[in-house]
Prior knowledge:
Blueprint (H helix, E strand, L loop, with lengths): L6 E3 H13 L6 H14 L3 E3 L14 E6 L4 E7 L10 E3 L3 H6 L7 E4 L6 E9 L7 E3 L11
Parallel strand pairs: 1-2, 4-5
Antiparallel strand pairs: 3-4, 3-7, 6-7, 7-8
Amino acid sequence: MKYGTLVFEQSEFWMIQNHLENNDIIEDYAHKNTLEILTQNMNFALCLSAEDIPFDIITLNSMLKVRGESGICQTFQMVSPNEVDIKNNKISVISSLGASVIGRAVEDKISYGLPGDLISLKITKVNQPNTANKSTTEEQKTKKEKIY
């Protein structure tokens, strides 16, 4: 991970944490495993105020692009569980893919899919919502921010 841990905006962290603790419905084994990993990662995550979130972190309502080694490329928006709209590429933060990328940054790599059928994806672009000039791609030369 680019920043060594997941990075969350404080209110988003608590919303996700609350949903994980109060949601008894687990879709399948792979989804349960993903949510358990997210829960574990959140124990060590950095929680920052909205203005301190680095420009390349995936937050709620961010638009992001991922690319696989096979050439697969997908763009989607990260949304809260009640805003899911697969036809319009809006995925839930607690879906398998959403839980795998939330709090990560451009250039981070994830493994996604079922055991035995995993694909490697790289986050190549993030556009955070309502933030002028908070967009990045892996091709841009950017100054890395150090987070303490």
